[in-house]
Amino acid sequence: MIVAAFTREEGVRRWWLIAIFALAILLQLELVFNRPVNWDEFFHLSEAHAFHQGRLTEALQVFYARAFFWLPLLPLDAIDQIRVARLFMLGFELFTLYAIYAMASRFSGRLAAALAALAYVTGGYVFQHGFSYRADPMAAAFLMGALWILLASRLDRTAILVAAVLAGLAALTTIKVVFYAPAFAGVAWLRWREAEQPRGVAMRLVGFGIAAVIFALLFIGATVLSLPDVGHGSAARTVSTSGMMMFDEGLFPRWQYGLGAMLSAPLLAILLVATPFALGSPNLSRPQRVALVGLLLPLASFLFYRNAFPYYYAYILPPAMVAAAVAIEAVIGRLSAKTLSVALLANALLVSLSTPRETLSTQRQLLAAVHEIFPEPVAYFDYPGMIVGFPKANFFMTSWGMRKYRAGFEEALVDAMDREVVPLLIVNHDTLEANQLGLAPAGAMLARDAEALRKGFIQHWGPIWVSGRRFASNNGPESFEIHAPGRYTVEGASGRIDGVLHLAGQSVVLARGPHRFEPATPGDETILRWGDHLKRPAKPFVGGPVFRDF
Predict the structure, then answer these.
(1) For residues 329 and 110, what is the distance between their CA atoms, to the nearest angstrom?
(2) Confidence at residue 23, expressed as pLDDT on a 0 to 100 scale
(3) Which residues pair with 526 in a beta bridge?
(4) Which residues contact 10 (CB under 8 A, 6 or more apart)?
(5) What sign for the dihedral angle of Cα 517, 520, 522, 526?
(6) 78-104 and 135-152 are packed helices; what angle lies between their axes, rounded to 10 degrees?
(7) With 90 as the cut, is the pLDDT of residue 360 above it?
(8) With 90 as the cut, is the pLDDT of residue 545 above it?
(9) 407 has a pLDDT exceeding 60
């Protein structure tokens, strides 16, 4: 595709560039199957399952769940379902690659345009996250498709309609579409200034804007109408909380990831830094320079956007890579295209070799253990929603989620336990681990939640904790609270619960609320554990973190 229209004068034989692109995509395809699943991907898959089960209550930023409603129907575990989703996301990325090339060809030679696409896909964060099961690859493809149509088409009725549909889908997919506004403005300015009939082009561009808004409202409206009653206010809540919390951390809120982006893709960083200087090329007209500045500006959002995590660069870089083709054009005048393409591929190889693949085995063992212990779904607490077929009872515990939680925008965990029976806790996050294993409750949590988890759950197998209590006999009689009503097994020493003696090995049904324990055997610990002799996997937990950083 990208190399199909090369001429001999452009400096590199077609097979070479085809081979470089093929190797880069093959390296990325290997990561599709072997890169550990990120917490975001588990969360997104859990929302696809929630939609399938009729539990999804969000209207905005969940198109990835609705579009992949069929994933829960596959006879695969969660990791393999995510692998399938990643293959589709890789398809979105490939479309974005071609859109970069096609748009960049408008401002540079085809060789430079192709190398811009190659620099994008081999860049560290993009190489790692461009195929991940998130909204970002989808939204980038929708928006780049719309920009490409506006830049290269005749702006006839069909083109405007298709571009508007793509923009509307992007708005349904993520509210981050606002960051692409300068890119659309720049392309619109270019088309208007270069038009033989500026008035007619201006009317068509205005028509595109109106149609895009209409389609976005139609898509969002249809989504809201399909929600359960509890979710009808979700769109307003999403916009409200986003406006309050997403842009209030000052400049460079994620500077460490910005630095990581440059260190994991140094050539790409150099090209982007050189791009503003390359815009002074005499080969560019003034309207072209304005358009290229507009395409560069979305990238500036990393200066203030609090969620500029590594996956964000796969979304925000494509317009900038169109502009970067101008800098690449100047570079290959001094450095051979073959050398540059090999260097870009080498960067992808280094990123691939540094990927910690062993974490995937830990994740798979944990998932298998949960399903062995609980053959039927139960409500649970964890960080991202890792047990996708089970109903997650708490919010997504990202940094943004924790901020909303502490501000009162997310339900407290004790309130969730009052609402439903939650016998399972997966300790797969630093905050949860600190609360359950640390010397003191986690300060990041509300005090009543931290105490309820710390006292009301006991370790069962590795990161799997279940509802239960431990009683030291030397503490004497004590009162305790049961948040998860149901059957419990008495382990260790015998004890009296609400005045009734229960021997080790017996089970007892406990209601939600306060109870009284009295030790019956001096010197020994008594344990109450959820379930009737709840099963433990024979193989011990392999250890290691369930998740690593991005």
Answers:
(1) 9
(2) 96
(3) 471, 492
(4) 109, 110, 111, 337
(5) negative
(6) 20
(7) yes
(8) no
(9) yes
Q: Residue range 267-275: average pLDDT?
A: 96
Residues 6+ apart with CB under 8 A from 161: 211
pLDDT at 11 over 50: no
pLDDT tens digits for 246-267? 566 778 888 899 999 999 999 9
Taking the model in full, what pTM does it have? 0.90
Distance separating alpha carbons of residues 266 and 40, to the nearest angstrom: 26
**245 exposed, middle or buried (CB, 10 Å; 0-12, 13-18, 19+)?**
middle
Phi, psi for residue 497 in degrees, rounded to 5: -115, 120
Give the pLDDT confidence of 525-543 residue by residue, as tens digits: 999 999 999 999 999 998 8
The secondary structure of 250-276 as a DSSP string is -S-TTHHHHHHHHHH-HHHHHHHHHHH
Q: How far apart are CA 383 and CA 427, in angstroms?
A: 8
Block residue for tokens 């009725």: 157
Distance CA 83, CA 41 (A): 10
pLDDT for residue 229 is more than 60: no
Residues 74, 389, 39: CA angle, nearest 5 degrees: 95
Six-digit token string for 370: 């949960």
Cβ-proximal residues to 490 (8 Å cutoff; 6+ apart), any chain:
502, 503, 504, 505, 506, 507, 508, 526, 527, 528
Tell me the pLDDT tens digit for each residue of 23-47.
Answer: 999 999 999 999 999 999 999 999 9
Structure tokens at 42: 């588990």
Please give the pLDDT value at position 6: 47
Strands 424-426 and 380-381: parallel
Closest by CA position to 465, among listed 532, 374, 399, 391: 374
Beta-carbon contacts of residue 94 (< 8 Å; ≥ 6 apart): 25
Cα–Cα distance between 213 and 194 in angstroms, integer?
25
Residue 486's Cβ-count burial label (10 Å; 0-12, 13-18, 19+) is middle
Q: Token digits for 434?
A: 């600190």
What is the C-alpha to C-alpha distance for residues 457 and 1, in angstroms, rounded to an integer? 56
Under DSSP, is residue 507 helix (H, G, I), strand (E, B) or coil? strand
User: Distance between CA atoms of 414 and 393, rounded to whole angstroms?
Assistant: 10
Closest CA to 524 of 482, 497, 490: 490
Q: Cα dist. 539→221, 278, 377, 433 in Å?
A: 50, 60, 22, 22
- Judge contact between 453 and 484, C-beta under 8 A: no
Q: Minimal CA–CA distance to 517: which of 484, 550, 468? A: 468
Q: What would the two tokens of residue 81 be? A: 């379902």
